[in-house]
Structure formats: C-alpha cells, structure tokens
Amino acid sequence: MAGNYLPVREDWLSKGVEAVIEPMLPIVDAHHHFYERPDWNYKEKEYLSDLTMGHNIVASVYMQALTRYRTEGDELLMPIGETEYVRELADRNAGEQVEIARGIVSYADLRIGREVDRVLQAHIEAGGGRVKGVRHLVAWDADSSLANPLSAASKGLLQDKCYRDGFSRLAVFGLSYDAWLFFPQLPELFELAKVYPEIPVIIDHCGGCVRVGVYADCQDEVFSTWRKYIYNISSLPNVYIKIGGLGMRINGFNFDRLEEAPSSKILAQAWRPWVETCIDAFGPERAMFESNFPVDKGSYSYVNCWNAFKKLTHSMSTCEREALFFGTANKVYKLKI
User: Model-level pTM greater than 0.90?
Assistant: First the structure.
C-alpha cells in the first residue's frame, strides 16, 4: 500500500476488540472512504461490517477517495463517477438503521479557478442532494517521504491565485471545504479561511499531526507548534475541526507495532493531549469525531476507536457530547437528521 497507509490485519484486530460502551449514544461518522484499489478493497459491505458492531452510528459523511472515477469523456468530470457511485449506494441504503453517505464530500480540481463551476454543478446534480462539500488535498512537506504519492500536492497551493479563485466558487454553490494538510501548513489555511469567512472550512484529522521523518526527533516541539497553530486558526468562526485520523503512519503513534490491537484505554491515553487541545480550542460546537476508516483500520478496530472517543469525553456534559458525536457534523454538513 502506498504512502501513509498501514496494512489491515483482521486477525490482529480481532484479538483486541472490546465490548461497546454507551451503545445508545447517537453518532455521525464524519469521515470515511470506500476504496477499490488493486491491493485494497473496502466498500459498502466492509464498512457496514465495521459500523454495525454495536455503536449507534446513525449516519456517515463520505470523503472523496479516488474511487470509481469515470474512465472516459471530459477529464475534469471524471471524478463525478465517484459521486454517482456513492449516491447510488446511499440511495440503496436509505431508510436503513444507518444512513451511509448522508453527506458526500467530492473532489474537484480547484486549480482551474472559475472553470470549476461546471464540475461543482455536475457533482451537485449527480449527488441528488447529498453533496455537501469539496476536498482537494494540499498536504505538502519538504520531506517527500511524508506525502501519499496518490495525492501529493505542490508547495504553497493554498496561496496560489488560481486555487483561491476555485476555492471562492464554493460559496456560490453553498459548499464547504475539507482541508487535508500537514500541521506546518495551518498558517496558510488560516490566511485562506480568513479571506473567505462565508465558506465553512473543516480541518481533517486534527490538523495533520506529523511525528515521523524529519519530525521524529522533535516531538515536543511538534506538539507545541501544532498547538499554537490550532489555537490561532480556531479564532476564525468559519473553521471547524475533525478529531480522529490518528492511525496513519505519519502520526507516529506506532499502534501497529503492538503485539495485539490497542485497547480503547491505550488509544485514549495516547490521544488525550491532542484531542483535549482540539476540543478546548474549537469548543464542541465546532469539533466532530471521525473514524477515517479504512485508513485508520491498520492501527485499531472501529469499536475501540469510538470507545476511546467516549472515554475521552465521559466527564463532559450531555450537550457537549451530543455536539461532538452528532450535532456539529449534522450542522456543518447540512445533513438535516
């Protein structure tokens, strides 16, 4: 598997699966994918198997993943195939206990500026009311070992005029923007989000915590810098954050090296400083939990992931937890649940 992906080992995962705690707590999984790749398949069947293991997942937000693109025709419109595929799957599951892909975040090449209008319109039409936003990955670092070769971006993309022109069009179509980047890029995202306060900006995966490669030997400095950037960007009211996505190789937690899959206690202990910083900076009303499956499945099970989030928030109020697990995602993605 390429880049940041860790192999999924079902036998290893099964040894550490726990009983679900607080099974009635309603959850919107704010970020997951379907993969259909030569070395990795994770689609409807596999996702349903994970999310029906006991947690009360009521809906999900699907995140673009280079899946089922069209293979002919206008190159700019090829990503519409992914929206068509996910919409069909979602419609098929409509009315079930879990509303898979109640919201869809699609891909559009924002580098083409105002020409992106026809791509956005095509996504909206193909999504049948499910398309809520766009993600065009911008993760870049001078250490090229950190980038996923399937989606590597160029330096300074958030500052590029054409990219910003394309970004600005999201407001016209009432769409949000999901940002996947590395933490040193957060100041660039701050400048972009400040210029376009009418566009909801959702930071993926706690803001790109990187603790491998050139960052491996300066982890205290990484946390301190990341924390400063998180508090700075949280001052913008149009910016939200997804808490999760901490099972990738770049995060440096090395859960995959344990003899058996980590318990929710181990996860909660490792994540606490990062999760508590995000919640304190943004508040529950602008933060939401995500699974980032199947990417994070290389490091822990779906059950233990959500158990850890529940343990990390057990002392919070009912209203605060409702926002983190359900309300914020429902609001920012206009799910209307």
Answer: yes
